[in-house]
Design goal:
protein yfey like fold; alpha+beta
Length: 170
């Protein structure tokens, strides 16, 4: 039995090495909750009126089109110190991007934190390489979600955190 166990372990290790430096997919379905899909008091159900009330007037506003998932989204970005909040054309929350240490995710992750802190707070991502880690929100029920969190990395350090629509549906 020990020999069989070692053979299976060796085969799994060889298979992992043969795959090479590709993304590793390991996240469980309940890693993110709906509470994780917001920043600075905003949530996936927020809109620009609520953002204005919570954050005040933005330092800058930018309108642009995002081409993804075979469709075009007309977005508006509001930029604050260390934070950009994006809204759909109708004013509904699309995503929030943390770029400064003064802003945190719902669980306390911030730009400048280590990968060790990231995984301590959120567990293993669904996908990770040297440049990014991806966590997907999988709500209960039959409908897939395109919500989640992408953490951009540089040399093992969190550089930018995007929470909200991440652009794919399973």
């Amino acid at each position: 039995m020990l020999i069989i166990s070692r053979l299976i372990g060796s085969a799994a290790l060889f298979g992992a090495l043969a795959i090479g430096p590709h993304r590793i997919i390991v996240q469980g379905p309940a890693s993110l909750t709906d509470r994780d899909l917001g920043i600075a008091g905003l949530s996936m159900n927020s809109d620009s009126a609520q953002a204005s009330s919570l954050l005040g007037a933005p330092q800058s506003v930018r309108h642009h089109d995002y081409h993804g998932n075979d469709e075009v989204s007309h977005l508006t970005d509001w930029t604050y110190s260390g934070l950009t909040v994006s809204f759909y054309e109708n004013g509904k929350f699309y995503s929030a991007t943390i770029t400064g240490r003064s802003r945190t995710t719902a669980r306390g992750l911030r730009a400048g934190d280590s990968i060790k802190r990231l995984t301590a707070l959120y567990g293993s991502p669904i996908s990770m390489d040297s440049l990014s880690a991806v966590y997907h929100f999988a709500p209960p029920g039959p409908h897939p979600s395109n919500w989640g969190m992408i953490i951009h990395l540089q040399r093992g350090v969190v550089r930018r955190i995007v929470v909200g629509v991440i652009g794919w549906v399973d």
